[in-house]
Design brief:
The complex is a heterotrimer of chains A (about 240), B (about 230) and C (about 475). Chain A has about 240 residues and is of the alpha/beta class. Chain A is built from 13 helices and eight strands. Helices cover about 50% and strands about 10% of the residues of chain A. Chain A starts with a strand and ends with a helix. Classes of the chains: A alpha/beta (about 240), B alpha/beta (about 230), C alpha/beta (about 475).
Chain lengths: ~240, ~230, ~475
Amino acid sequence: MPEVRLFATCLVEEFYPSVIESAALVLERLKLKVRPLRSAFCCAQAPFNEGLRDEAVDLARRFLKSCEPGTPVVIPSGSCTSMVKIFYSDLLADDPALAKKAAAMRPWLFEFSQFLVNVLKVKYVGARFDRTAVYHPACHLTRELRVVDEPRLLLGAVQNLRMVDFRNPEECCGFGGAFSVKLPHISAAMVEDKIVRIKESGATAVIANDCGCLMQIGGALHRQGLQVETFHLAEVLAAR
Amino acid sequence: MSAFHKIIATVKSAIERSPRTAPPAHPASPGVIVPVTHDARRAELISQFARELEAVGGAFLGIFSPDEVRARTVALARDIGAHTAAIGAGVTLDTAAVARALEQAGIAVIRPGASGDAERASYRERLAGCDLGIVEANAGIAATGTLAVIGTSASPNSLTLLPPANLIIVNADRMRADLAAAVSAIGAETFTTKRVALITGPSRTADIEKMIVLGVHGPRKLYALAIWPNEV
Amino acid sequence: MAAAKPDPIPDFLETSRKGVADADLRRKLENSTGRHLEHVAHMRAEFPGYDGERDVARRIKEDAIGRLDELLIELKQKLEANGCTVFVAADAAEARDYIIKIARKASARHVVKGKSMTTEEIDLNPALQAAGMEVVETDLGEYIVQLRRERPSHIITPAIHLSKEDIGQLFADQLGIAYTAEPEALTAAARERLRSIFLGADLGVTGVNFAIAETGTLVLIENEGNGRLTSTLPETFIAVMGIEKVIPKLADLSHFLEILARTGTGQKLTTYTNFISGPRREGELDGPRAMHVVILDNGRSAMLADPVMREALYCLRCGACLNVCPVYRRIGGHAYNSPYPGPIGSIVSPNLFGSAAAKLPFASTLCGACRDICPVKIDIPRILLHLRWKETQAQPPTKWPADARRTRAGVRRFARMARHPRTLRLLSRIGGWMLRPFARDRYLRRMPGPFKNWTRWGRDFPAPGARRRKPRGEG
């Protein structure tokens, strides 16, 4: 049975353990052997985005040590995947050995929906999810990885799921990692406007493939007492 | 070392410190598909020009022979109730004849005069007070509805700047497909010695709530007509 | 108004807080920027060659900036051959002093200006006023903000923060016309005022969009006609440009014009593209008697020396990145305290204004919308990350408030602990147990420490580890 590694990412480990369970389940149902990648905890994006390069290099080293080219690593997050797949080349520019390893790993790193649709060539995974939902395209997923259609194709094949449109879906939700607490007033204003548009759509669920967006949108929905739930794409695809 | 050379030296050392990028290979601008006949091509370009000009708020009056231009110009001046019109020397057209036709129709004509300080000031005053400025463009651009107007002593820039309405005439032979073709037809030499203005529609602004309003500083109305040259 | 010394620059955190708190401003920004983005989307859709032209334009800029020294020498020679006087200024003070010297020599009293962000950058207007001259901005948006004694809040649409009603009130108060909120009527009132000012002006100052080295030609792009008037009517004309505006050849220009208007204003071509190579020639009836070109460095060569920063010099100042930026759309341009707001401002301002602008690179979620709309594909997020890293090294350190310092310390602590996943997992499990009793359906209403700002600003916090059960298919 072919093997894949599944890297949970720090936000999933801390706040959304069900996402990793769901992602593993979806992959196992597709007859893959799933081996968690647990010797790394964070992709290094948090310190990298704050300008803390040395700390970020340490974490990148740790991540790269824990995987090898030849076995795909699947990551249920657009922004963590962008970090390891794209931003490592800038981060590790001064360390040729690490940069080489990062380059060798690059073709083996996949965001979850990217892996399903482009590698496994799968759209229908037998999911059933009885809700009316909007899909929030996460920024790094859309504009770094250029993963635009894959999640929508997968969601389109989910039974009983009614996808609806909302205005300006591509505009950032305002999470941005440390930005959300460093410039909290701007971050809160961004999600406030996003929620106005979600409300207009009549959806009862928001689906995204990035737990940062889910924290931000989910946290604001909950604060406003709205009956709209947030789900990770993997959770939707694992549901029956 | 002069201040200029000091800055050049700073720039040069800055470039040397950061890696130089390879000189680019520019693809040629996309070729134009030429229809079967010269006339068909001209007509096609002019109709495209007309559509684009109207899209930006200009008005296309039609295609006329050199003789018909006089009558059409007089008719336009009457339509807009012009009492005075200012006219510059033509590129291919004898605008003196147009000026005479306007005068015969009772419309006062302002012509460029001498270049002394007093004459220039009075010319400017009269232009600011006239009703219609008339010039011939050096070239037209079909893709954008643009007119390339070149300022000369016999056809000053202010003609397309101060009057509230403009009639710009363009010869069909001088209609180019796109900007690159027009710029190359005008030629580098002209750009260094003359003022060139590419005019695409009437003056406009979107500074108030991004809503489009025509006629801010320049002309509110822009009319264009094409001359179909007589066959020789 | 004696305004020799500008006021100390207010803090970004304070001004951006004012921005988000202004619901009216946010509505105006959303309307105007939304209208712009629709136009741009339409233009891109009907021009299939758009993306290819972006690459061509970018390559021309790469080439030009890569041999800027040669091109500047060529440009200066050609401009001088065309009859211009050229002055290269190392910094803002040199540029200001030169312009004032020229203005005095010309005995100028009435200065008209075309829109120029570079003259905003060097604070030219207060300097001219202090020298006893009357300065009038003639671009409609600039005129409006000048009447309000404000700075432009957008590089293309200076009065984007104002509604037509705001402007109507302003004109009623300041121009003494009857109140109207009709854009047509307001524009006509401004036209009438400014026309007479134009006819009496003795010095014109504008910016420059492109400077063609091959022919010694300045290209000035505009829609209103005020740039043409400013460069044509007064006896003395001064054009102010950054060193990065030079392009090699006349033939390069069309590649920029094809994309600049489409992205900047949603047009195929701006109404006026003016080519200005020199002063009035013998026998001509208009145009300035003397033409000066001020070429400004002011920190640009330092940007050029930094291989990551360098591409910021490719910027065409189209303003599209402001309109698409989710941060700009919430806080508005004034919050940035710089003539260059928005994403491009956040990468350029720290280079031009130093520590006063050091916080700006953090005003981004790195969403990448700016890079996607940029006509020359400037990788703004990458430069923001680069500047954040440089900010962490700055000496003396940037003055951040306590909570922002706590955030950074928290990230650093987390990053160090994340090197030891097992310990971190254990600790976070303990933390989760401690917090869970405070959770209400899997969310916490108040959080301590670095997350305090999360729950203080409109968001509940997910209880660590609470979301264990995967959802079921039924709603």
